[in-house]
Design brief:
The structure is a homodimer. By secondary structure, chain A is mainly α. The first copy, chain A, folds into two domains: about 80 residues, Multidrug-efflux Transporter Regulator, Chain: A, Domain 2 (Orthogonal Bundle), CATH 1.10.1660.10; about 70 residues, no CATH class. Chain A contains six helices and three strands. The interface between A and B is large, with 51 and 51 residues. Chain A binds a DNA duplex through α2.
Chain lengths: ~150, ~150
DNA sequence: GCTTGACTTCAACCTTACTTGAAGAATTAC
DNA sequence: GTAATTCTTCAAGTAAGGTTGAAGTCAAGC
């Protein structure tokens, strides 16, 4: 390789070390279009430093339950070649924050229902708030799938 | 079958209808030990009515990210044969509530970090709060895996 | 009493998110 | 200069959480 000292680009091993990911996972992510490394003349991958931030984003989003294809959609908003600007990351972050707010709110609702249910001690499926939040959905054969607000 | 009118037990089709699950999923859950139907002399499954509540619990827990084997551990606290009592469900619910509180709090922390990050606009991996919450972990090759509080 | 629909088992397949292993080329370390 | 790493590709395997299909049995309606 032999580039000048403060290298802009990282080998897959270096990216692995800094992100905590296995190299196999990083190759897999490339396959899925989440990262787009350059190549050395010999075919070795070279990642821009901003890749670490991309991968951090991937890891956080995963922990929030996003699938890789959904994460890719978010990352596709970033420039393909150049390093993302402050504004680029900002847009992603704002989306992210809105989603977090949503999740926090939905968990809060569930938590409240649960509190009510602990107190009420009901065992009737027809009455219980928590387990049968939307009786109309149940009447249509829908059931408790919609408890967390996924009503179609 | 031919039982008296207000039947205590349900066929797999009836359970499917009331929960919104596919019969194949219910059989799969039986295989995993999440439900334990009786059998008719002919070998057809007969589910106690409380099974619907068990399955509702499974569905909610799944949406919160629990795996089936973890959910089974929770459900194993319920009586195997008899219908669960109010107290049985109450114990489960209390665990559940504690976990929800935990999740809500962790999401809140992440949300705060994100807010700070939107404002700061930093792109330096060495400095950024959100993407590099634990620099010591990163120094040990750990990386952002620990962002949500999973620090070992 | 016979047809239709619901039930049975079992094996194979699917998707997501990766890991593992083989075989070989490139780089680094001494 | 050679030995040990690290890198490459590609195929196959794994685990979770199911679905699908075949082949056959049981139950309910008319």
């Amino acid at each position: 390789m032999n580039l000048s000292h403060p290298r802009e680009d990282l080998t897959i091993g270096e990216v692995a070390e800094r992100t905590g990911l296995a190299t196999s996972a990083i190759r897999f992510y490339e396959d899925k279009g989440l990262v787009r490394p350059q190549r050395t003349p010999a075919g070795h991958r070279l990642f821009h430093r901003s890749t670490i931030r991309r991968l951090s984003f991937v890891l956080i989003a995963q922990q929030l339950g996003y699938r890789l294809d959904e994460i890719k959609l978010q990352l596709d908003a970033l420039p393909a070649e150049a390093a993302p600007t402050v504004g680029d990351w900002e847009r992603l972050s704002v989306n992210f924050a809105a989603d977090l707010d949503d999740r926090i709110q939905r968990l809060g609702v569930l938590r409240e229902r649960l509190t009510g249910c602990i107190g009420c001690g009901c065992l009737s499926l027809e009455v219980c708030h928590l387990y049968n939040a939307d009786d109309r959905a149940a009447a249509h054969g829908a059931g408790p799938r919609y408890l967390l607000g996924d009503t179609p």
